[in-house]
Amino acid sequence: MLFTMWDAAKTAEVAQAADKVWASPPPGIKMLAHYICQGIPFPGVLLPPNTLVNVSVIEADSNEAIAATAYPLVLAGVTVWHVPVLELPVAGAAEVEKELRG
What we know:
The protein has 102 residues and is α+β, with helices and mostly antiparallel strands. It has helices spanning 11-23, 63-75, 93-101; strands spanning 2-7, 29-36, 51-60, 79-82. It has one domain (2-101): 2-Layer Sandwich (Alpha-Beta Plaits). The protein is built from three helices and four strands; from the N terminus they run βαββαβα. Strands 2-3-1-4 form a four-stranded antiparallel β-sheet, with helices on one face.
């Protein structure tokens, strides 16, 4: 998962950087879903007023692919937070957990 946060005043610069990155993403990364939060995404967390938050679901083959998409956004003023997640089947999560535990 990819969380990005930026000041609403920088939206034009952020949109330009995001369009450039995702128009032809580097090899090894794919955007699966993209959401903009329309409310307070993290209750109790003090985000500055007028902060926009984006949540994206991406697949990446390497840290280099992640960095190649994140760096241009950071230069545009975006705070980038990558959160690795593990996909678990709806049925059979206990079996996957046993395999991971060893």
